[in-house]
């Protein structure tokens, strides 16, 4: 079964003294683990050496009191030329070698187990407090910039090299799983994905070669350039008239919640479960949910739950809309069908200008959430945005809006922004990595998936597991983001309305 | 320096075996005991200060369990030290 372990960047920092204490503690644990592991190895070798000494005792009369003093015809004299008979008159040492062998073996096993547990504890401490996260981010940034420069200067060799890595991943997958699984190819290029995307972005915009260094929004600039063309084609294919209507499920899909993990669970019910055919509530694709909470002072707070791309012919959550949402231009982002649909649904659900709003979205839903947080600040008070698997690093979300991003290491989609998310107190990123149950140091959370193959980790179940692991770690920043989210929708739950969007025709609605 | 097992002119292989084992086990037991002593101090040296929640509780609990397992490993290391010395006959 797949497990996910998380690392955390951003969120509030510990004090220098606190951080120093955790660094020292982690280093101490790793040092003790290393020493125990070395001792375990040494005891294992000692076991073999002592065991091999047992054969030499066959020449000791004291160790073989019942043996014949004559050497067995199959056994020659020992290296010094002594025979059993010759040793009878000598002085001896009584040794319980079988017991010594057993003790050595037990020590090797016990110390190896303890070393493994200590490493696991050190790993937990490091992940819980985001130790080394800055260094990892800096390394990642350097790799991203180098890959981007290479892709910008030598696009075809960069493409070929990526292909080589992808093929290597495919072969690895075939050896391990006995069949072709393209997800392995994707995984093998994880380290280069952000850099390649940035390279493509700067190629599209014809950015100067060295101008790309130090900037992170190449993809969004590229999306702005492509978006003009893609939107025109999309409008010919899908139309640009948006119809939003309220729908009613046969049972409650999104309910009252007070936690990010609860909201993620509802998002899963609304989106992923339906996409996978596991939903029986009668809701169709292109449907969002808007939950109302009444605060003690009589004002309303809203939570908007937005699923990801469904790619249906008449859905506002198609593939092309992702390009418009990723644009560096606010006007282009506002024109994206999915963003228009959410804003129209919010208005019709009763969200008034000045109301407090929080949004949670998966994939394209998360980009919509980020786009609204960036572009509708003059209309709503956007308190908190939660995204899962959404490339939103360059969306200009003001610092007053808290952002909790959950990304998977190898999902690709979250890397489409070509940059790492800002690591500031109000923007926290949980980054999940897949591991397997036979990994001894695995301390993660099991993914609620029925697939027995290595599958794409963009499914929301993986983000849920990553966030669950981050919560269990007890990270200070995660705790603060959880508390902020809870406070943002703190109030009496008034209910949830569901809104379905459909595309068709040639009409330009509002928010253009 | 003469070995306690090395009786001049009468060296049975068992004395050489004992020497080999002692040379191997004694320093190993010593260093292991020192390491285990340091592991025993971990709950104090690496306490989950200002860290709360499920993971912190589990961390504290597992660190305490590791420290509790130290005497058993120490006993084994001591036993190895005794066994490798053998008894002169």
From TrEMBL, chain A:
<dbReference type="InterPro" id="IPR012908">
    <property type="entry name" value="PGAP1-ab_dom-like"/>
</dbReference>
<feature type="domain" description="GPI inositol-deacylase PGAP1-like alpha/beta">
    <location>
        <begin position="350"/>
        <end position="398"/>
    </location>
</feature>
<dbReference type="InterPro" id="IPR029058">
    <property type="entry name" value="AB_hydrolase_fold"/>
</dbReference>
<dbReference type="Pfam" id="PF07819">
    <property type="entry name" value="PGAP1"/>
</dbReference>
<dbReference type="GO" id="GO:0016788">
    <property type="term" value="F:hydrolase activity, acting on ester bonds"/>
</dbReference>
<protein>
    <recommendedName>
        <fullName>GPI inositol-deacylase PGAP1-like alpha/beta domain-containing protein</fullName>
    </recommendedName>
</protein>
